[in-house]
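To whoever is covering the structure queue this week,

Two jobs came back overnight. Logging them here so there's a record in the thread.

Job A:
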Amino acid sequence: MIMKGKKGLIVGVANNRSIAYGIAKACKNQGAELILTYQNDKLKPRVEKVAKELDVKNIYPLDVSKPEELNALKEAIERDYGKIDFLVHSVAFAPREALDGKFIDTSKDAFNIAMEISVYSLIDLVRAIEPVMNDGGSVLTLTYLGSQRYIPHYNVMGVAKAALEASVRYLAVDLGERKIRINALSAGPIKTLAASGIGDFSEILKYNEKNSPLRKNVSIEEVGNSAMYLLSDLSSGVTGEVHFVDAGYNIMGMPLYEK
């Protein structure tokens, strides 16, 4: 029960196949009390189903592009829980058209949307929630190998993830004054709702399974366990880092190719 007595907010649980769900379940299994959010009324029933499974008392609305909802979330946490010990940011988005074709054709609007939702939302969320976090807490965000290498059809999201990883390093210094740690976790390809927007994703899964050192694709349970370690006191000396859990996928990467 590594997380017993810990309370944490997990933003970005879409359903029971999402990476954020794997993280939530791993933390719950180790004794943590969870708080979840839902983006809109359409997604609320899915999050309610997960909340029931994981015995979550409260779920709150949160569209990360709306400052008023961030402020309301902070006030709700302070009112209902006092302070929390960890925060998970599992939020990313780019318009579908920005994931097809050539990166050079990315529109300014698509670029700005990807950066706002996938990168600035971390800064905004941490700024809002940090006042209700205990000293010595932990923050975790999710990245991907496309930040460091060319991945087919990842395009502007690769640039956004690179900016996200840089943000982690700068936030680590700011949060370090209160011994709050922040890290990024880079999972290998997993068949999630978000991944469905990446063209030829099934080919990436096949390639990884065949060529990674462990000859397998990583599972949300494996990602969840690694995340739980980074959110727990076991990683009290670790901050500002990108950590890989991907069956060795980052060793191999994807080849440059055109279909």
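Job B:
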Amino acid sequence: MPMITQLPENIEKHINGAHYSIDSVGQSGSQVICFDDFVLKISDCDEESNNEYHMLRWLENKLPVPRIIAFEQTDGKTYLLMSKADGEMSCGQNLINEPEKLIGLLCGGLHMLWDVDISDCPSDYSLDKKLILAEYRVNNNLCTTEDAEPQTYGKDGFKNPAELLLWLKENKPDEHLVLSHGDYCLPNIFVKNHRVSGFIDLGRCGKADKYQDIALCYRSLKHNFGGKFGTVPIKYDCKEFFEILDIRPDWDKIRYYILLDELF
């Protein structure tokens, strides 16, 4: 079993030699250590790690999110110890094999988010804020192109992240602000008893256009049904997602928010 590096005393006292495993699912860039009853997330001290802490506190009793057990920032690292999400990840093979059931659960989760009153939401992830964060990442060479969608860069796409950023600035769509998860992908949504039972990885959660989550959910469904992350692929038309969600898709917005996510 991999060893955990030395932990702050405020975190260590809760762990006390408990058995653990390292979570390799997802692409958060953090180290996620799973214990029987809680999870330790170790991240760099940055915008997202601070935002996750504040949003978890704000969302307590509003949505099924992890409960904070301990929080510490030291030596450039953030240590967030929290309760374990209840249920199973929505990217499990059993749910992938029942696409209409899975999509119904995910659509229910979206409505749970959208039903939260955002009048006093402490986090703003609308486009003006997101584009400032994206510009910082581009200017500091923090954006990679290896995991991008095939059509984003290259012959028929953008030359580089800087050109993509310029296009995003020049083509901002109108916004309908709701509570947005910010990374509404299948590994971040847990389900149990026919409904969403947990939202995790909330570093980009806050006020944003509803298509932020619609676009990334649609992309995640396509990837997971297609077997990109190790599941057995199935044939399913992901456009049925919009029928179950009961909206007419705005494909321009979907493309915009998927392209915006390439810079994060």
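Note for Job B: The beta strands are 20-22, 31-35, 38-44, 68-74, 77-83, 88-89, 177-180, 189-192, 195-199, 206-209.

Please reply-all if you pick these up so we don't duplicate work.
Q.
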